[in-house]
Automatic annotation (TrEMBL):
Designated name of the protein: Transposase IS4-like domain-containing protein
Ranges of biased composition (kind: Basic residues): 96-107
All residue ranges annotated as the Transposase IS4-like domain in the record: 1-105
Membrane-traversing stretches: none
Position of the signal peptide: none
One GO biological process term: DNA transposition
């Protein structure tokens, strides 16, 4: 057991999460950028709130023009998210997960 004391916070919106073997209290942020890496939008959610529940919201807030390829990490790889991009007339650039027990195919 970790003997470090847990500090109290009056912040009513922050939450606990467990990641990489550690408990963390606070928030997580999602940052959207343009092709040059300039920040378009930053959103903050409680630490225990998955960014995948906010995928469509994050994409809409980025203000992408039709036909733009949206790049996202493989945690967002799902049929629903691919269809959400298609509905907004955006190109799917979500990284794909490697199938278990198989080599990664070439795109």
């Amino acid at each position: 057991i970790d003997s470090n004391p847990i500090q109290y916070s009056d912040d009513k919106d922050a939450r606990w999460t467990f990641k990489a073997g550690k408990y963390t209290y606070g928030y997580s942020s999602v940052v959207t950028t343009d092709a040059n890496g300039l920040i378009n939008k930053a959103t903050t959610h409680p630490a225990n709130d998955s960014e995948m529940t906010h995928f469509e919201e994050n994409v809409k807030q980025a203000g992408n023009q039709k036909g733009v390829r949206v790049l996202y990490d493989k945690g967002a790889a799902s049929q629903a998210n691919s269809e959400a991009l298609k509905a907004q007339k955006l190109r799917d650039g979500i990284m794909r997960k490697k199938p278990k027990g198989k080599q990664m195919s070439h795109w």
